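Weekly sync, protein design subgroup
Attendees: M.S., D.O., the rotation student, P.L. (late)

Item 1: inverse folding check
M.S. brought a backbone from last month's batch and wanted to see whether the design step gives back something sensible before we order anything. D.O. pointed out we never logged the input encoding, so this time it goes straight into the notes. Structure tokens as presented (214 positions):
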């Protein structure tokens, strides 16, 4: 970042800070946190600028989106406290997940980025669902991890080595069993779908075994 870019960044931050404090004075809004969030956003912009200048510096996406997520969480805590109380964790975890998604988008050989992206996306979705049913959230977690490895299995690395399908199958089965045990699927379309899937799979295995014996 050259000197002119640094001056523009600092100048822009000063202007935004001035606007924030003027609004606070005029309307007595408790938006001091917005100014703090702007500092985190400035740090995010620096890291994202590093990446945009050189895509080989993919690592800059991680601190960049982490700081951006923190900035959004702090800002919404002042501006939209009710929204923040429910979705603050989703925003933060989702922003970090986005960093790993973009790493894979720009560097397709970095297939490993799919794993933290999937885990963080799963956690972000879990925090967005208001429930006190621990088994239900646990089932969702395993299903999310299973979907992550399933996606990895569809990529070239999975087509070559096949190993991602093993944790994918284990996690999907565990997640499904936990969801069934939680009772969350009762009287739902997903409950009927999984019931039918288990029934068909069981009949198929039994019939196939009997035919082979004959």
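Designed sequence read out in the meeting:
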């Amino acid at each position: 970042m050259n000197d002119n870019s640094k001056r523009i960044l600092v100048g822009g931050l000063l202007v935004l800070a001035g606007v924030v404090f003027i609004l606070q004075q005029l309307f007595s809004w408790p938006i001091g946190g917005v100014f703090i969030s702007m500092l985190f956003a400035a740090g995010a912009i620096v890291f994202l600028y590093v990446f945009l200048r050189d895509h080989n510096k993919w690592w800059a996406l991680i601190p960049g989106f982490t700081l951006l997520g923190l900035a959004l969480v702090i800002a919404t805590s002042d501006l939209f406290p009710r929204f923040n109380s429910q979705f603050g964790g989703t925003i933060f975890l989702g922003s970090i997940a986005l960093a790993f998604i973009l790493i894979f988008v720009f560097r397709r050989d970095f297939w490993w980025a799919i794993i933290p992206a999937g885990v963080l996306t799963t956690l972000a979705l879990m925090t967005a669902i208001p429930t006190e049913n621990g088994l239900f959230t646990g089932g969702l977690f395993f299903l999310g991890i299973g979907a992550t490895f399933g996606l990895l299995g569809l990529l070239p690395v999975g087509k070559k080595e096949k190993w991602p399908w093993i944790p994918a199958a284990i996690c999907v089965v565990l997640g499904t069993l936990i969801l069934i045990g939680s009772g969350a699927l009762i009287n739902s379309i997903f409950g009927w779908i999984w019931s039918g899937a288990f029934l068909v799979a069981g009949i198929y295995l039994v019939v196939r075994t009997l035919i082979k014996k004959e």
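Discussion: The chain has nine helices and no strands. The chain has a mean pLDDT of 81.
Action: P.L. to compare against the previous round before Friday.
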